[in-house]
Amino acid sequence: MRGGIVQLTASNWWWVGSAATGVVLGAAASGLTRRFLRHERTLATTWWFGAVLTAAVLGLLGWCVGARGELAVYGFVAVLAVPLGVIDWCEHRLPRALLWPLLAGAIAGFAVLCLVRHDPGSGVRALAGLVAAGGLFLILAVTTGGGVGAGDVSAAAVVGLVTGWIGWAQVAGALLTASLLALVMAAVPGVRRRDDGGAMVVPFGPCLLAGALSMVLANG
Questions:
Q1: pLDDT of 206 higher than 60
Q2: CA 194 to chain centre
Q3: Could you give the percent of the chain with pLDDT greater than 70?
Q4: Considering only CA atoms, which of 69, 72, 65, 101 is closest in space to residue 84?
Q5: CA quadruple 78, 174, 158, 89: dihedral positive or negative?
Q6: 200 pairs with which residues across the strands?
Q7: Taking the mean position of all CA atoms in its chain, how far away is CA 15?
Q8: CA–CA separation, 165 vs 128, rounded Å?
């Protein structure tokens, strides 16, 4: 009984600590949202909006992942993923100036974990997931004639990297979840829009990032 209480207290600590950190980092990262949005958005550019979203995501990660090195990598990805998701939701684009540092930082973080643990297996699988998911979306971008953008290709690579660290089933699960979310969003008039060619498009970046988050939370 006492051991159970100690375990619960530790879980609460990581949840609270991660959420509190998310408030600070999310407020700071809201500056990136303001910088990269081309048009003024009253809600999306406020510091508290980014703080609340980031705190919620980091709180969930802290609760599910706990005191493991992966929390630092997932947290880094989440802090930059929030402004990316907001920008894509508002303007249907994913700035490379945010995506590439996110990808590089996640690779570096996983590399450190592999070195510390003397176990490269998860890192190799993560890189393979990056190539597989990014390659799949690159093929889709070429074959759909613009239906999938370059930002979506990079975002898919991030998803493949993060979920590939866990396993191949999680890579597939994240992409499937993202596709299902996109189908749901396509049915919402306020979210979907028409591009210059008349085709219906939805912001796929938030779907991809949410798919990765769901797999991380489901697998701890």
A1: yes
A2: 25
A3: 89
A4: 101
A5: negative
A6: 194
A7: 19
A8: 9
Flag whether pLDDT at 151 surpasses 60: yes
- If you write DSSP's letter for every residue of 69-103 in order, what string do you get? THHHHHHHHHHHHHHHHHHHHHHS---HHHHHHHH
Give the percent of the chain with pLDDT over 90.
Answer: 72
Mean pLDDT over 139-168 rounds to 92
List, in order, residues 6 or more apart from 131 with CB less than 8 Å away.
157, 160
Strand ranges (E), 35-155: none
pTM of the model: 0.89
* C-alpha to C-alpha distance for 185 and 203, rounded to whole angstroms: 8
**Is the confidence at residue 83, as pLDDT, over 90?**
yes
Amino acid at 128: A
Q: Give the phi and the psi of residue 213 in degrees, each rounded to 5.
A: -60, -40
Q: For 142, how many CA atoms within 13 A lie in the half-sphere containing its CB?
A: 5
Residue 195 has pLDDT above 60, yes or no: no
Give the list of residues 6+ apart from residue 124 with CB closer than 8 angstroms, or none. Answer: none
Using CA atoms, how far apart are residues 144 and 150, in angstroms rounded to an integer? 12
What six digits make up the tokens of 93? 């684009």
Quick check: 200 pLDDT over 70?
no
pLDDT at 2 over 50: no
Q: Read off the tokens for 170.
A: 């999680």
Burial label for 191, CB within 10 Å (0-12, 13-18, 19+), is middle
